[in-house]
Amino acid sequence: MKQAVRNLVIVTVVACVGVACWKFLAKPQPRAEKTIEAREQSTTAPAETFMRVEVTPQGLLRGGNPYFIRGLGGEGGVEKLQGYGCNSLRTWSDTGLAELLDEAQKHGITVNAGIWLESECSWFSYHIPEHCAKQLARVKSQIEKYRHHPALLLWNIGNEAEGDGSDPAYWKQLNMLCRMAKEVDPHHPSINAVAGLSEVKARSIQEHCPDLDIVGINTYAALPGLRKSLAKLAWKKPWVVTEYGPAGFWERPKTSWDRPIEQTSTQKAVTMKLGYEQAIEPAGPCLGSYAFLWGQKQEATSTWFGLRLESGETTESFDLLRQKWTGQRPDNISPSIEQIQCDVARKKVAPGHPFTASVKSMDADGDVLSYEWSVYHDVVHHDAKGKEIPAKLVADSVKVKDQAQATIVAPQQPGAYRLFVFVRDGKGHAATANEPFFVER
């Protein structure tokens, strides 16, 4: 800063030698806000490191160029996305953000940086000023820390923290956060992800959140009808589909013991294709999307949302995304499942009851397929942080498990179980299916 002041003095003296001082003083001086901006950049990062992102009537611009988001929600495996057409990743919090930004930059991928907002609960309330002030300070600190990173695309301030959307206190705090984000980092727009855009939420955003740049919409089975829903709401603000994928476990039929029936990996790809083509692909006010999930996690089951298996293979849904993003069919694609049959599917059986199962699958590339059958407990347990704990494998329940047909013996312990089959092509791709069953005495 002292050096900058010396330079300014020198420039002033030199200018005064050649021209009258009154003319120099009459010249319009740089705007104060830009002077402050330049000062911040000189002390925190080189001015040229960040890439300016703008929301325009024509869509999103990054570095002055059109930028349609072809994204995935998830934090790992960035190196696997090279050449697949994916250009952005979405996170839900700042955990590991520094490393992800650096890794994304290496591979030409941007990051929609998630900043976690609390929901109304026993330890946090949007009606208590002290709580809101503390949250604002935390959000500001995170923005200040990463605002100059060249891989940064958007600030995703909050994910499904709105409840039913009827509390003005939440939306007012959100708008305050978005306004602060603009002041601290005017180069990266703000986005907030809601769990579906209901009429109440739409009205609340329009009334209380003028400083929110983009609305993010998390939607699954309802994605194909999203544009019609937005038209009924007379929605004007730009939007991004911040989560989509197969039908959610809350949207699927259930067994008599209240466990959801999962789509096969092939059915999931069909669901995603329909949603992408009807809601995302037409673009316009839609600035792009983030498919859920680039990775694998336990949520209802171990295979419900993941585009990859725990063992690393990708599924048909990822093939679909690659084709949409690049306009080309992948050189080798995942196997598909036409049908899974199981004698006890969605039924109750006695302990030790023997049964059979089979899967009808095919591979368009003619790859030799391998089969893995396994039985897992189908009871949901959570850890101290509220995350689902991976289901436990039932050892020795499957007697013949490496063929398209399997022989299984029901476990002795009563309870809910799920039979899984994994079909692999040996080329990094897989298909999955499962059926729930219940053991009772």
What does this structure look like?
The longest helix is centred in the first third of the chain and has 18 residues, at 129-146. The chain starts with a helix and ends with a strand. α5 (129-146) runs parallel beside α6 and α9 (265-280) runs parallel beside α10. The chain is globular and about 65 Å long. The strands form four sheets. Strands 4-5-6-7-8-9-10-11 form an eight-stranded parallel barrel. Strands 12-14-17-16 form a four-stranded antiparallel β-sheet. The model is unreliable at 1-47 (pLDDT under 50). With 441 residues, the chain is of the alpha/beta class. The chain has ten helices and 19 strands. It has three domains: 2-44, no CATH class; 53-326, Glycosidases (TIM Barrel), CATH 3.20.20; 336-439, Immunoglobulins (Immunoglobulin-like, Sandwich).
Core attributes:
eight-stranded parallel beta barrel; alpha/beta; globular; four-stranded antiparallel sheet; 441 residues; 3 domains; 10 helices; Immunoglobulin-like; disordered N terminus; TIM Barrel; single chain
